[in-house]
Design a protein that fits this description.
The chain is 52% helix and 9% strand. The chain has 131 residues and is mainly alpha-helical. It has a two-stranded antiparallel ribbon with strand order 1-2.
Length: 131
């Protein structure tokens, strides 16, 4: 993409900020060019956010029914998935999925709960309940 072809359509999901993109200049070298985004990017971002909100709402219903723990709800609410939460906490993915079981989640140690809470920017009290 050339410097002059970098989209500047605007993107509400960027919140008025700009993002850096690499583009080829007239001299043939790569440069960093600021972009306000484009419509296609905004559509895809909104679809992804809507999907994560749907997953969080589904998890909230399963928490209320006693089928999953609050951990799954908060994971989706923080816009994370199991692989990302595993990477941030340093835990195995299978272990995180295991902690979705309400009985196991209720027995987690305070240090492990704090690890999850820190990864999602919550307190332990917020992590253990669904508002």
């Amino acid at each position: 993409m050339l410097d002059s072809e970098v989209p500047q359509e605007g993107n509400v999901t960027l919140g008025g900020h700009r993002k850096a993109l690499y583009a080829r200049g007239t001299d043939g070298k790569m440069h960093i060019v600021q972009s306000t985004g484009w419509e296609v990017e905004e559509i895809v971002t909104r679809q992804a956010v809507d999907d994560l909100n749907r997953l969080a709402n589904d998890a909230r219903q399963r928490v209320a029914a006693g089928q999953t723990s609050a951990l799954e709800y908060h994971m989706h609410k923080a816009r994370m998935d199991v692989p990302l939460l595993a990477q941030v906490t340093g835990l195995w993915q299978w272990r995180i999925r295991r902690h979705f079981r309400p009985a196991l989640f209720a027995r987690l140690s305070p240090s492990l709960l704090a690890r999850y809470a820190d990864a999602m920017g919550l307190t332990v009290a917020q992590l253990t309940k669904v508002e």
